[in-house]
Fold:
Amino acid sequence: MEPVSVKAIMFGPRGILFVKNPRDDLELPGGRPEAGEGLEAALVREVSEECGLDITTTSYLGSRSCEIIPGRRVLLVFFLCEFTGQGLTLSEEHSAYEWIDVATEKPENLPSFYWEFCQNLDCVRVRRLHAAADISQQTAATYPLQTGESDRQRLQIMSSIYDPATKDFLRRYLPTEGRILEVGSGHGQIACWMATGSPRSTVMGLDICPNQIDLATSAAQQLGLTNLTFRVGDAIRFPDALRSEGAFDLITCRFTLLHINERTEAIQALLTQLSPSGTLVMEEPSLASLFSVPAVAGFEQANALMMAYGWINGIDYDCVEDIWSIVTGLDVNVKEARFSQPTVWRKEHKEVVYLSFQQFRPQLIKRGLIDDERAETIAQSLAREFMDDTVISGGLRTLQIAISPRGERP
Ligand SMILES: C[S@@+](CC[C@H](N)C(=O)[O-])C[C@H]1O[C@@H](n2cnc3c(N)ncnc32)[C@H](O)[C@@H]1O
Structure:
């Protein structure tokens, strides 16, 4: 029989983890089981030794007999792995690592047997299909959260965690009188606050989802805000009617570009709607910034799975770096930029993690990232271990950034 080697397929935000061997070829982490060792145990040991990462779950994907080097065949056994770990540390066995997007072009030094296996994974095929699809259909197909009434409780908690810092930043750019637009306005908390704080301005909330617009509109009516309206529309394909009504003095969005993979196009589209002295204020997070003290396995696994869901849909939920590099590549003035990260320690706030995971859960199962039994274990860990009074956590670190078209003084 051919020798056996177990191989880990681990998704990060930029793709699948490959390591560079002494032949300068890229390979999946893993190796040979030792005498008496099971395949999964061998995988856990090899990945820990080679990369310093802890595998938390493994799911068998398949096996292939492959000619690793001319004349030498090995039976490769592939597992999809979830993992945790403080950082990736390579052993002397490998000289470098890369996260590779296998839905794009194959690097020359990546053997085709790895490439073909990874390309045929269900999740990669789904991603390729989505890449070819229409942008707005894609947003609708990949937006993982519920909308309308079913997301009311979660968005209310999000609002009480994140609103203080958002308002603190945004109030510096709120005009006393002008036109204001919030894109991806959700249930309208921030739009209502802006309309109240700047009564001589007209405020508009735009959201792709009609359910959200219904709830936001009734919130504005209950508050008696006559300077605030909400409309259904896409942040990228700006409604013509809106365009013809004039430029905006302030455009803002929060936790919205997070769900859009054409971020450059979205930011450019928003800039074209600004008046020459207008400001675009964005606040978007990095999902990878979440942590708990002490570490809770279910919390780490839930976050890793949500990141992986984004990746297979072509969306990097670690979007701080992405937004900063887009902004610095555009012809704009950066007026102000800062990071914000709230501490999430009250029980009523910590519950948001369970609620978010439960909303993602059917999507994670549908995309084959997890089975129901595993999802239930994570949900239980979030409902019990993570909710314990001895656990505190860092919420999403966000980048708050205010930019204006070039020409205006910063
Ligand atoms: C996570 S919610 C955030 C809501 C609100 N901004 C807040 O911070 O509470 C994201 C919102 O963006 C909307 N959205 C997603 N993609 C969009 C797009 N392409 N154009 C407009 N809205 C979009 C969703 O419908 C959802 O209401």
Q: What stands out?
A: The first strand starts at residue 4 and ends at 9.
